[in-house]
Each structure stands twice: as C-alpha cells, then as structure tokens.
C-alpha cells in the first residue's frame, strides 16, 4: 500500500512541474470554485441581483464535464460512461475494454463506491434514462451470450435505455456523495446528461465523421486461442470489424427569443463472423442512432420554455454458431417527449417538467422453430439438410442445426411530472437560509410479449424414407425425417405497472464559516408498497474564512430503483410437451410445465445504501487539492433464500438479506485556471482512488445470494457476506490529464496517463469440510473455494490530437486523431477458471480518425 501511496504523491508533485517546464511565464486567474446560479427579482422597480449557490459540501461530491472538455477527451465509442474515466470515485468492470470484442458499441457499466452497476440513476435533461426492466442481465458481462440465445430470455438492453453519444451533450453532471435530496432511485451514483440547447445568436451547424477498424487496431491474443480468434469462431472473437460514426447538427434561431436545434448521430459497426463447420462468413451488425429536436423560447417576463423530442433506437444483429437461418436481432431504445418551464418570481424560481418515454427491447429470430436435423443418417444423405453443424465429414450420423425462437419483447411506457422550487436566500434567527423543495410523480406501464408460438424439436428426429408430412409441419421433411416430440412455448403476454411518488425538502443554512445542509426525500410506490424516508445531511466549515481550507462531511441515505423483471418473468418459461406416433398423426399436448422459477417479492423492503463521508479541500498555491473518504453500507438488498412449489408453480423466495460495503479514498488536484504560456495554454488534473468493497450478493439481483453461504476466501472460512467484492474492485487507480493548446498552430493535444494496480481474480470449486480440516474448524459441509488469480499493475497512455483550420468567415475544418494505448501495452483482464484456458487482454494500440466541418 505504501508503494502505491508514494506513486500517487509523486504524480501529484510532478504534474505542476511538468507544466512549468514548458515556459515559466505563468499567469493563473483566481476564481471561486463554488458553482452558483443567478436570478433577477423585481423589487420596487429596481433590479436586485440574488445569487444562489450550490452548498459547498455537495460540490465536493459533484463533477461537471463541459462540452469543451468532452471534445478534448481521448475516446473510443463516446458513450456516457466513457466520460467517467476521469472520476476517481467510479470503478469500471475488471474486464472492461475487452480486446477481443472491439466491434461492440454498447456502453460499459460502472460502479460507485461498491454499489451494483445497475443501481445508478442515469438521466437525460433531468428525465430517467434507466432501463428498469432487466438492467442486470448476464451480470453486466458484455461478452456473455446475448439476450435471445434462449426462448425464455427476458429481453434487456443494458443499464441505460438510450445509448446517446457524447457529441450531443452540453454538460455532464456526476454526483457520487452528499447527493442533494432532489435526486432519488439509486444506491450508487447519479449521472445527468444535459443536451445542447439552441444558440439564439446565429445560425450554425456541424457535420462530422469518425472511424476505426481492425487494420487500425493492435491485438493481444493468447496463443491457445490464436487460430480460433483469427477465424472468428465465436461471437466474441472479433478479429475483423469496421466502425463508422456520423453526426450532423443544425442550429437555427427563429428570433432573438426562440430557436431550434436538430441533431442526428449514427454509430454503426460491421463484424464478420465465421461458421467454422458450415464454412461460411456472415456479418454481424451493431447500430445506434439518435434523432434530437429541441426548441427554446424566452418569454418577455424572463420565463424559459423548452420542448424536446428524441428518437434513439439501437440494434444488434447476432448469429448462432453453425446454425442455418439462426440469425436474430436485438432492438432497443425508443422515443421520448418532454416540455420544461422555468418561471422566475419574486420569491425565486420554479422549474416544471412533464415527459413521456416509450422504450422497448425487441428480439426477432429468422425462424419460429429450432431443430437438429440429420444431414446424414448412417449411410443416407439428406437432400434438404445439405450442411452439417456437428459430427465429422465421415461420421455415420451428422446433424445440421436450424432456426430460432420467434419474436418476443419487453416494453415500458413512463409518464413523468415534477416540479422544483428554489427559494431566494433569506436570513432568519442569525442564519442564512436557502430552501429547495419539490415533488415527482412517475407512472410505469410495462409488458412482456411472445408474439407467436415457438417450437423446439426434442431429442433427435426419426429417419423414415416413407415420411409424408402434413401441410405446414415445420418439424418434418418429406421422404426423410420427422420429430415425434416437440416443446411448445405458447404465445404469451404479461403486464406489470406501478406508480412512484416522491417529495423532497432541503435547507442550506450558513452561520459565519459553518454551512449545514439538512434534507429529506420521501418516496412511495405501489409495487413494493414501502414508504421510504431518505435523510440527507451535509456540512462544511471554512477553517480560516478565506475559502482556502474547507472541511466537509455528510451522512446520507439513498433508496434503490425498482426492478420490473420480477413481474414480467411470471410464466415466461412455461411450456407444453407435445407428442405424436408418426408424421401423419396429430400432436397430443401434455400438461403445462414450468422449467424455471418465478419470483415471490411479497413483503420485501426497498434496498438502500447508507453513506458517511469526510473530506478536506485545500488551496495550495494556484491549485485545489481535495481528499475525500466515503463509506457505504448497502442494506436490505435482494437475495434468494429458498424455493417453493405451489400447485405446480415454482417460486424463488426473495429476501432482504444481501448486503454490500464500500470504502473509497480519493484525491483530486486541479489548477485554479489553465496556465498561459507564451506559445501554449496548459491545463491539467490529477486523480487517485483507493477502494475496498465487499458484497454478499456477488451474483446480482436475480440469482442465488445469501449472507450465510460458507466460502473459503483468502485461506479462511467465512460467510459469503464477509468477502471482498469480486468485480469493480481495483484497489488503486491514478490518472493524470494534460491538455495543451497551441494557438499559433490551431492545435490541441490532450494526454491521459493512467495507472491501475494489479487486482486479484478468482476461480471457484467446491470444498467438502470434514473433521480435521484446519481451515474449516468445527464447520462440516460444503464450502465454495475461491482460488486466487493475480493480475499485474499496468499503465495506460492515451492521446487526442485536434487540428482546426479556419476556412471562410465562421467556417472551419477540424481533423482529429485519437491514439489509445499509445505504447501498445499488453494488459491481462481475465483468466478462465481452467488453468489450461486462455487469457484475455485489453485492447492494444487503437487509432481513430475523425473530421468535422463547422459553420
């Protein structure tokens, strides 16, 4: 630990000296780092400037990333979560940036302070962008089999409903601690993307293009899988890919008080895939689009009206290995409309919003049935099944796989209304007060639907050269073969809805150098039927009264958002087994059977996270150093304790026994303002993080998880709830950003140097504890043995170069070059549980080329 602490301090010390070495003519500008907003009140015919400011203790848990900063950041796909790499309180999955899957465009998942990756509150312009139907699908593993590989999958599109690109964002607000009472429905963090507003000053626009491909990417591949990787024999072996990103923005003022902005963003990726036995290449595709239309109107009385319409679908086409007609498409995203009204009054400001959002995750297979046919039966060849998927060329029996699982989807409609009241500061009883209050109403209407009956051939078909098929019988081939047994998943529709009510009150009080901000958020929903009271308390103290030394602290509670997965999975796995005696006989249906379990969520409490934090913000010369400690206790989280069987229907009984615990120490250092030299302007920032997280719910919200399961971890017998978290738990991270602008050359050079400490992964096996086992002590029975897999420390180094060439008047051409992993470092991210299995690496050097034209 001490070696890593020295490294943090060394990088912190070197950062300002690196800037100083360029030129010693430094002219920093002193500004107050405290965020503030202003309103004008008309009192007695005179304009009085009233300043409202964000409480200091809350700004210490807030990161604001502007559009200018976003444009300079080295980036791959430009997702919202990629922008969080410079936040020391955010953890990415251990296997993030998988070098084998560079064709993917889905946003990666992140965790705040050890909380679950699906318990963050993602928002766009203050409206939820959370996929609450099934956000934890596959445990967040972007390399697992995609939804649609099973006829009983509940379609899911990741933690975020809309995959918007960062080019559309005006600013990104990230809240990780001391989060204001106006925000709810999370136990991790809050990420609010503010979309660009129209510019009422002049007509303008921009078109851009970015691209990369396998020819611009270096791969690090384990020799054990090199041949399979080169042949793209798995969905997630992607040796060939091409990504093309397009965007266009048109800004048009309608008057000096009204304007419109239209933006279109398109991300597409083509990933060739090889059917090794069939011997054919076929393309997979990924596509994400966003159409945005936004209008602003400034009324004569100072009120502001905004109206936004957005359509943001995404689509992924997948293939099944060596399956004929086995392609299927996952479609997600949807559309939304919202209207905002900001009203300025003598007492303060009222912000009102109403919105509607429709989202879906739709899966459609190329066929409504799946079967394994004989391509050769003993010495007889099939005329219809002229390929084989298993067996060898000389095998007596060979099989060819065909088809898929029909069409099914989840759908959600959300209706939202909310208001926020920001009262002007006032003085009462020697205290200065700044009160905020508001309310929010959300109505959720969701459904699952299987559009048509789906059939799966059971066991193997019967070969009979005299076979005569009935009309429309998909499980029969004339003169060859037919199935005597099949599984029928019937057409199905399930609905679920609930309403969520919330209200909050917060008062920021100052007395001399002391600032205290108590608050409370109260919420209720008619799904779990719990009244949740979330107290918030934050405080700061200006030690010397000069705003240079500030101590801050807080104690807060955050309640989780609900998961509709438990409702919509009801009966999704029910099926009939149908049989017949021969191809000419009718199908005879058996009893309705359930292959998996539904969920009993009765009497559950809402999961929550309790937070304690303490920190210091110190002005040192022309820099601000902030050290912060955050402790989180996640309680009442969902775990699975038992199963029941009632009238042939099986249930998982969920409990509130699961827990998480997170400890984070972070350091951030930033200059007060950029350093201005003779030939260059230099800005920089440094961040560091130490984390230690534990979790009793390692397998996420809908899988087996209980505190009292016994494990052998780090050579000791313990309950599962006492383990360290197995993912999102890199102990140390450090990063240094340096942004250099050279006006004479119209050139900007952004660099990001990162250090990530080696972490410990684990493979698992079952250990039987008997008498005499030193580790197990008095315990007898089975325990899960976790065997350590060590990963090395590594450095990352990324660039973005931007050259801007003025053309005519306000027109300019901009060329961008991103070089990620500049030194092509080989970094291990994952080892399979088997010692003979291959190691997965992060992406090697990758180059992105871009160009844009602005006017």
List the helices and strands and how they pair.
Layout lengths: L1 H21 L13 E8 L2 E8 L2 H4 L2 E5 H6 L17 E3 L17 E3 L8 E4 L2 E2 L40 E7 L14 E6 L8 E10 L12 H5 L11 E12 L4 E18 L4 E19 L5 E15 L4 E2 L3 E18 L2 E18 L3 E9 L2 E2 L15 E7 L3 E17 L2 E3 L2 E20 L3 E4 L4 E2 L12 E2 L3 E2 L2 E5 L2 E20 L2 E12 L5 E12 L6 E11 L5 H4 L5 E6 L8 E2 L3 E2 L3 E3 L7 E13 L2 E24 L2 E23 L3 E2 L4 E15 L14 E4 L2 E4 L12 E11 L4 E10 L3 E10 L11 E10 L3 E13 L5 E9 L7 E4 L7 E3 L4 E9 L1
Parallel strand pairs: 6-9, 15-20, 18-24, 36-39, 42-47
Antiparallel strand pairs: 1-2, 3-8, 4-5, 6-7, 8-9, 10-11, 10-52, 11-12, 12-13, 13-14, 14-16, 16-17, 17-21, 18-19, 18-20, 21-23, 22-23, 23-29, 24-28, 25-27, 26-27, 28-33, 29-30, 30-31, 31-32, 32-37, 33-34, 33-35, 37-38, 38-39, 39-41, 40-41, 41-44, 42-43, 44-45, 45-48, 46-47, 48-49, 49-52, 50-51
Structure description:
By secondary structure, this protein is mainly beta. The protein has one domain (2-368, 404-453, 490-562, 606-695, 728-758, 793-854): Beta Barrel (Maltoporin, Chain A). The protein is built from five helices and 52 strands. It has a 22-stranded antiparallel barrel. Strands 15, 18, 19, 20, 24, 28, 33, 34 and 35 form a nine-stranded mixed beta sheet that branches. It has a five-stranded mixed beta sheet with strand order 3-8-9-6-7. The longest helix has 21 residues, at 2-22. The chain is globular and about 95 Å long.
């Amino acid at each position: 630990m001490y070696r890593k602490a020295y490294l943090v301090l060394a990088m912190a010390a070197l950062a300002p000296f690196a800037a100083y070495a360029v030129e010693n003519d430094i002219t920093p500008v002193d500004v107050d780092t405290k965020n503030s907003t202003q309103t004008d009140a008309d009192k007695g015919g005179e304009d009085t400037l009233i300043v409202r400011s964000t409480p200091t203790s809350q700004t210490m848990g807030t990161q604001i990333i502007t559009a200018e900063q976003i444009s300079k950041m080295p980036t791959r796909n430009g997702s919202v979560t990629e922008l969080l790499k410079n936040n020391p309180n955010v953890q990415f999955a251990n296997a993030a940036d998988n070098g084998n899957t560079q064709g993917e465009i889905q946003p990666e998942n992140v965790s705040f302070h050890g909380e679950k990756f699906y318990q963050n509150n993602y928002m766009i312009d203050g409206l939820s962008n959370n996929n609450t139907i099934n956000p934890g699908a596959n445990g967040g593993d972007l390399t697992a089999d995609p939804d649609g590989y099973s006829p009983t999958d509940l379609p899911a599109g990741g933690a975020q409903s809309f995959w918007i690109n960062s080019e559309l964002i005006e600013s990104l607000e990230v809240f990780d601690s001391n989060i204001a009472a106006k925000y709810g429905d999370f136990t991790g963090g809050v990420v609010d993307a503010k979309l660009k507003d129209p510019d009422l000053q002049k007509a303008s626009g921009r078109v851009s293009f970015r691209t990369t491909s396998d020819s611009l990417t270096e791969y690090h591949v384990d020799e054990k899988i090199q041949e399979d990787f080169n042949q793209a024999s798995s969905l997630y072996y992607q040796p060939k890919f091409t990504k093309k990103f397009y965007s266009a923005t048109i800004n048009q003022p309608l008057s000096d008080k009204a304007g419109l902005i239209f933006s279109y963003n398109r991300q597409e990726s083509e990933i060739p895939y090889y059917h090794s036995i069939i011997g054919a290449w076929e393309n997979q595709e990924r596509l994400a689009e966003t159409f945005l239309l936004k209008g602003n109107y400034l009324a004569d009385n100072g009120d502001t009206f905004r109206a936004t319409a957005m359509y943001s679908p995404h689509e992924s086409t997948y293939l099944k290995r060596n399956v004929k007609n086995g392609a299927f498409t996952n479609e997600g995203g949807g559309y939304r409309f919202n209207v905002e009204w900001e009203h300025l009054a003598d007492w303060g400001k009222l912000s009102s919003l109403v919105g509607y959002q429709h989202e879906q995750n739709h899966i459609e297979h190329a066929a409504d049935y799946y079967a394994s046919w004989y391509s050769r039966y003993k010495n007889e060849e099939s005329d219809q099944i002229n390929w084989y998927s298993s067996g060898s060329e000389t095998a007596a029996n060979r099989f060819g796989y065909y088809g898929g699982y029909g069409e099914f989807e989840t759908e959600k409609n959300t209706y939202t209304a909310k208001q926020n009241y920001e009262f002007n500061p006032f003085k009462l009883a020697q205290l200065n007060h700044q009160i905020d209050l508001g309310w929010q109403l959300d109505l959720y209407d969701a459904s699952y639907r299987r559009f048509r009956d789906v059939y799966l051939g059971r066991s193997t078909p019967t070969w009979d050269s005299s076979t005569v098929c009935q009309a429309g019988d998909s499980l029969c081939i004339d003169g060859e073969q037919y199935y005597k047994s099949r599984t029928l998943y019937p057409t199905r529709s399930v609905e679920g809805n609930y309403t969520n009510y919330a209200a909050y009150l917060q008062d920021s009080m100052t007395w001399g150098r002391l600032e205290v901000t108590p608050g409370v958020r109260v919420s209720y929903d008619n799904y779990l039927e719990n009244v949740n009271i979330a107290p918030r308390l934050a405080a700061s103290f200006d030690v010397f009264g000069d705003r240079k030394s500030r101590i801050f602290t807080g104690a807060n509670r955050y309640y989780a958002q609900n998961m509709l997965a438990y409702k919509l999975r009801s009966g999704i796995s029910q099926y009939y087994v149908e049989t017949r005696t021969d191809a000419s006989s009718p199908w005879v249906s058996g009893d309705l059977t359930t292959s998996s379990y539904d969920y009993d969520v009765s009497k559950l409490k809402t999961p929550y996270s309790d937070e304690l934090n303490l920190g210091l913000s110190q002005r040192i010369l022309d820099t601000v150093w902030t050290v912060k400690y955050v402790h989180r206790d996640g309680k009442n989280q969902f775990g699975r304790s038992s199963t029941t069987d009632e009238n042939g229907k099986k249930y998982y009984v969920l409990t509130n026994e699961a827990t998480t615990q997170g400890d984070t120490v972070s350091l951030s250092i930033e200059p007060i303002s950029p350093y201005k030299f003779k030939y260059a302007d230099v800005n920089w920032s440094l961040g560091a993080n130490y984390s230690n997280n534990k979790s009793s719910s390692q397998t996420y919200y809908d899988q087996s998880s209980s505190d009292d399961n016994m494990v052998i971890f780090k050579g000791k017998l313990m309950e599962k709830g006492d383990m360290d978290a197995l993912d999102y738990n890199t102990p140390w991270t450090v990063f240094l950003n340096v942004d250099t602008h050279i006006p004479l050359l119209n050139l900007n050079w952004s660099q990001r140097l990162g250090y990530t400490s080696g972490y410990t992964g684990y493979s698992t096996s079952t250990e039987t504890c008997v008498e005499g086992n030193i580790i197990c002590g008095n315990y007898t029975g089975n325990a899960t043995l976790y065997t350590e897999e060590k990963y090395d420390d590594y450095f990352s180094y990324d660039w973005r170069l931007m050259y801007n060439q003025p053309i005519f008047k306000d027109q300019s051409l901009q060329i961008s070059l991103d070089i990620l992993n500049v030194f092509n470092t080989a970094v291990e991210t994952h080892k399979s549980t088997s010692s003979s299995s291959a190691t997965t690496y992060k992406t090697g050097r990758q180059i992105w080329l871009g160009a844009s034209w602005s006017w």
